[in-house]
Amino acid sequence: MIDIASLPRTDIHSRVYRVISSRYPQVSIFERASSAADWDILHAVESLTNPRLRDEVGDIRLVPQEDRVYGEGASWIMAAFTHPPKDGRGGRFNLDFGMFYCSAQEAVSIAESSFHRARFLRESRIESISQEMRVVRAQVGLVALHDVRHFKGHAIYDPNDYTEAQSLGYKLRNAGSHGVHYSSVRTDGTCLGIMRPSALSNAVHWRYLRYHYEHGSIVRVEPLG
Prior knowledge:
Blueprint: E1 9-21, H1 28-32, H2 36-47, H3 53-57, H4 74-82, E2 100-102, H5 106-123, E3 128-147, H6 163-174, E4 179-183, E5 190-194, E6 200-214, E7 217-223
Parallel strand pairs: 3-4
Antiparallel strand pairs: 1-3, 2-5, 3-6, 4-5, 6-7
Protein backbone atom coordinates (compact mmCIF):
# COMPACT_ATOMS: atom_id res chain seq x y z
CA MET A 1 0.00 0.00 0.00
CA ILE A 2 1.56 3.28 -1.12
CA ASP A 3 0.98 6.32 1.09
CA ILE A 4 0.47 9.19 -1.36
CA ALA A 5 1.38 11.73 1.33
CA SER A 6 4.91 10.33 1.29
CA LEU A 7 5.36 10.40 -2.47
CA PRO A 8 7.91 12.84 -3.86
CA ARG A 9 6.87 15.24 -6.60
CA THR A 10 8.77 16.14 -9.71
CA ASP A 11 8.36 19.45 -11.54
CA ILE A 12 7.66 18.78 -15.21
CA HIS A 13 7.92 21.35 -17.97
CA SER A 14 8.32 19.37 -21.16
CA ARG A 15 7.15 18.71 -24.68
CA VAL A 16 5.43 15.32 -24.75
CA TYR A 17 4.10 12.82 -27.29
CA ARG A 18 0.97 10.67 -27.29
CA VAL A 19 -0.01 8.09 -29.93
CA ILE A 20 -3.67 7.48 -30.75
CA SER A 21 -5.61 5.84 -33.55
CA SER A 22 -5.94 8.13 -36.57
CA ARG A 23 -9.66 7.31 -36.77
CA TYR A 24 -10.32 9.55 -33.77
CA PRO A 25 -11.34 12.94 -35.20
CA GLN A 26 -10.54 16.37 -33.90
CA VAL A 27 -13.65 17.65 -32.11
CA SER A 28 -13.90 21.18 -33.45
CA ILE A 29 -16.34 22.37 -30.82
CA PHE A 30 -13.50 22.51 -28.28
CA GLU A 31 -11.42 24.57 -30.70
CA ARG A 32 -14.21 27.05 -31.41
CA ALA A 33 -15.04 27.69 -27.75
CA SER A 34 -12.94 30.07 -25.69
CA SER A 35 -14.72 29.60 -22.37
CA ALA A 36 -17.12 27.29 -20.54
CA ALA A 37 -20.03 29.59 -21.44
CA ASP A 38 -19.12 29.49 -25.14
CA TRP A 39 -18.84 25.72 -25.03
CA ASP A 40 -22.24 25.26 -23.38
CA ILE A 41 -23.91 27.40 -26.05
CA LEU A 42 -22.14 25.71 -28.98
CA HIS A 43 -22.82 22.24 -27.60
CA ALA A 44 -26.51 22.98 -27.09
CA VAL A 45 -26.91 24.35 -30.62
CA GLU A 46 -24.86 21.69 -32.44
CA SER A 47 -26.45 18.81 -30.54
CA LEU A 48 -29.69 19.65 -32.33
CA THR A 49 -28.23 18.87 -35.75
CA ASN A 50 -25.32 16.51 -35.07
CA PRO A 51 -26.43 13.22 -33.46
CA ARG A 52 -22.81 11.99 -33.33
CA LEU A 53 -21.62 14.95 -31.29
CA ARG A 54 -22.18 13.31 -27.92
CA ASP A 55 -20.04 10.33 -28.88
CA GLU A 56 -17.32 12.58 -30.28
CA VAL A 57 -17.23 14.88 -27.25
CA GLY A 58 -17.47 12.08 -24.69
CA ASP A 59 -18.58 12.54 -21.10
CA ILE A 60 -17.68 16.14 -20.26
CA ARG A 61 -18.98 15.59 -16.72
CA LEU A 62 -15.81 13.63 -15.96
CA VAL A 63 -13.81 16.86 -16.11
CA PRO A 64 -14.39 19.56 -13.46
CA GLN A 65 -15.21 22.87 -15.10
CA GLU A 66 -12.11 24.56 -13.68
CA ASP A 67 -9.87 21.97 -15.39
CA ARG A 68 -11.41 22.12 -18.87
CA VAL A 69 -9.42 23.64 -21.70
CA TYR A 70 -10.66 25.31 -24.87
CA GLY A 71 -9.22 26.83 -28.00
CA GLU A 72 -6.73 25.60 -30.58
CA GLY A 73 -5.68 21.98 -29.98
CA ALA A 74 -8.01 21.52 -27.03
CA SER A 75 -9.79 18.48 -28.46
CA TRP A 76 -6.56 16.44 -28.53
CA ILE A 77 -6.31 17.11 -24.80
CA MET A 78 -9.93 16.90 -23.71
CA ALA A 79 -10.71 13.67 -25.59
CA ALA A 80 -8.32 11.74 -23.36
CA PHE A 81 -10.31 12.78 -20.29
CA THR A 82 -13.87 12.54 -21.62
CA HIS A 83 -13.44 9.03 -23.08
CA PRO A 84 -12.52 6.60 -20.28
CA PRO A 85 -11.42 3.06 -21.24
CA LYS A 86 -14.21 0.78 -22.45
CA ASP A 87 -12.46 -2.59 -22.42
CA GLY A 88 -13.07 -3.38 -18.73
CA ARG A 89 -9.31 -3.51 -18.13
CA GLY A 90 -8.66 0.19 -18.04
CA GLY A 91 -5.34 2.00 -18.18
CA ARG A 92 -2.52 1.46 -15.73
CA PHE A 93 -3.74 4.16 -13.32
CA ASN A 94 -7.36 4.63 -14.41
CA LEU A 95 -10.49 2.59 -14.98
CA ASP A 96 -13.65 4.70 -15.23
CA PHE A 97 -12.07 8.12 -15.73
CA GLY A 98 -9.79 9.41 -18.45
CA MET A 99 -6.08 10.20 -18.41
CA PHE A 100 -3.62 11.63 -20.92
CA TYR A 101 -0.81 9.07 -21.15
CA CYS A 102 2.31 10.40 -22.83
CA SER A 103 6.09 10.58 -22.71
CA ALA A 104 8.75 13.19 -23.31
CA GLN A 105 10.36 10.54 -25.55
CA GLU A 106 8.39 9.84 -28.71
CA ALA A 107 9.97 6.37 -28.98
CA VAL A 108 8.59 5.45 -25.54
CA SER A 109 5.08 6.53 -26.52
CA ILE A 110 5.37 4.44 -29.69
CA ALA A 111 6.53 1.38 -27.72
CA GLU A 112 3.70 1.78 -25.20
CA SER A 113 1.01 2.22 -27.84
CA SER A 114 2.44 -0.64 -29.93
CA PHE A 115 2.02 -3.02 -27.00
CA HIS A 116 -1.58 -1.97 -26.36
CA ARG A 117 -2.54 -1.97 -30.04
CA ALA A 118 -1.07 -5.46 -30.50
CA ARG A 119 -2.91 -6.77 -27.44
CA PHE A 120 -6.20 -5.34 -28.73
CA LEU A 121 -5.70 -6.94 -32.14
CA ARG A 122 -4.74 -10.30 -30.62
CA GLU A 123 -7.84 -10.28 -28.45
CA SER A 124 -9.87 -9.39 -31.56
CA ARG A 125 -8.40 -12.51 -33.23
CA ILE A 126 -6.97 -10.54 -36.11
CA GLU A 127 -3.98 -12.22 -37.77
CA SER A 128 -2.58 -9.46 -39.95
CA ILE A 129 -3.43 -5.80 -40.52
CA SER A 130 -1.88 -2.37 -41.00
CA GLN A 131 -3.35 0.60 -39.13
CA GLU A 132 -2.63 4.31 -39.23
CA MET A 133 -1.84 6.03 -35.95
CA ARG A 134 -1.56 9.70 -35.07
CA VAL A 135 1.17 11.28 -32.95
CA VAL A 136 -0.08 14.20 -30.88
CA ARG A 137 2.53 16.58 -29.48
CA ALA A 138 1.69 18.74 -26.47
CA GLN A 139 3.24 20.76 -23.68
CA VAL A 140 3.11 19.74 -20.02
CA GLY A 141 3.57 22.20 -17.17
CA LEU A 142 5.24 23.66 -15.41
CA VAL A 143 3.43 21.28 -13.04
CA ALA A 144 4.34 19.00 -10.12
CA LEU A 145 3.57 15.29 -10.68
CA HIS A 146 3.66 12.53 -8.10
CA ASP A 147 6.79 10.48 -8.80
CA VAL A 148 6.70 6.67 -8.48
CA ARG A 149 9.73 5.82 -10.60
CA HIS A 150 11.58 4.51 -7.52
CA PHE A 151 8.86 1.86 -6.95
CA LYS A 152 10.24 -0.42 -9.70
CA GLY A 153 9.30 -4.00 -8.78
CA HIS A 154 6.17 -2.93 -6.90
CA ALA A 155 2.77 -4.34 -7.90
CA ILE A 156 1.89 -1.00 -9.58
CA TYR A 157 4.31 -2.10 -12.31
CA ASP A 158 2.75 -5.50 -12.93
CA PRO A 159 2.81 -5.89 -16.74
CA ASN A 160 -0.75 -7.20 -16.96
CA ASP A 161 -2.62 -6.66 -13.67
CA TYR A 162 -3.42 -2.98 -13.09
CA THR A 163 -5.33 -3.46 -9.81
CA GLU A 164 -2.72 -1.90 -7.50
CA ALA A 165 -1.83 0.88 -9.91
CA GLN A 166 -5.49 1.79 -10.41
CA SER A 167 -6.00 1.89 -6.65
CA LEU A 168 -3.15 4.38 -6.44
CA GLY A 169 -4.60 6.30 -9.38
CA TYR A 170 -7.93 6.75 -7.61
CA LYS A 171 -6.18 8.04 -4.49
CA LEU A 172 -4.18 10.53 -6.49
CA ARG A 173 -7.19 11.72 -8.48
CA ASN A 174 -9.29 12.15 -5.33
CA ALA A 175 -6.44 14.17 -3.82
CA GLY A 176 -6.44 16.54 -6.81
CA SER A 177 -3.12 15.33 -8.23
CA HIS A 178 -2.07 16.61 -11.64
CA GLY A 179 -0.73 13.17 -12.44
CA VAL A 180 1.99 10.60 -12.06
CA HIS A 181 5.55 10.25 -13.33
CA TYR A 182 6.41 6.58 -13.76
CA SER A 183 8.73 4.14 -15.51
CA SER A 184 7.62 2.47 -18.72
CA VAL A 185 6.91 -1.24 -18.42
CA ARG A 186 7.25 -1.79 -22.18
CA THR A 187 10.65 -0.22 -22.89
CA ASP A 188 13.46 1.78 -21.31
CA GLY A 189 12.23 5.25 -20.47
CA THR A 190 9.62 7.09 -18.47
CA CYS A 191 5.98 8.02 -18.95
CA LEU A 192 3.57 10.63 -17.65
CA GLY A 193 -0.04 10.00 -16.74
CA ILE A 194 -1.73 13.40 -16.67
CA MET A 195 -4.94 13.55 -14.60
CA ARG A 196 -6.03 17.15 -15.21
CA PRO A 197 -6.35 18.79 -18.65
CA SER A 198 -5.23 22.13 -17.23
CA ALA A 199 -1.70 20.69 -16.96
CA LEU A 200 -1.53 20.51 -20.78
CA SER A 201 -1.39 23.05 -23.59
CA ASN A 202 -0.34 23.59 -27.22
CA ALA A 203 -1.51 20.19 -28.47
CA VAL A 204 -1.06 19.62 -32.20
CA HIS A 205 -1.18 16.79 -34.70
CA TRP A 206 2.52 15.98 -35.13
CA ARG A 207 2.65 13.19 -37.70
CA TYR A 208 1.17 9.88 -38.84
CA LEU A 209 2.59 6.41 -38.33
CA ARG A 210 1.52 3.08 -39.80
CA TYR A 211 1.63 0.08 -37.49
CA HIS A 212 2.13 -3.26 -39.26
CA TYR A 213 0.71 -6.11 -37.19
CA GLU A 214 1.28 -9.81 -37.82
CA HIS A 215 0.42 -12.83 -35.68
CA GLY A 216 0.30 -11.12 -32.31
CA SER A 217 2.88 -8.33 -32.58
CA ILE A 218 3.54 -4.98 -34.16
CA VAL A 219 6.40 -6.02 -36.44
CA ARG A 220 7.13 -2.64 -38.02
CA VAL A 221 6.35 1.02 -37.40
CA GLU A 222 6.38 3.05 -40.61
CA PRO A 223 6.70 6.86 -40.42
CA LEU A 224 4.28 8.58 -42.78
CA GLY A 225 5.49 12.15 -42.33
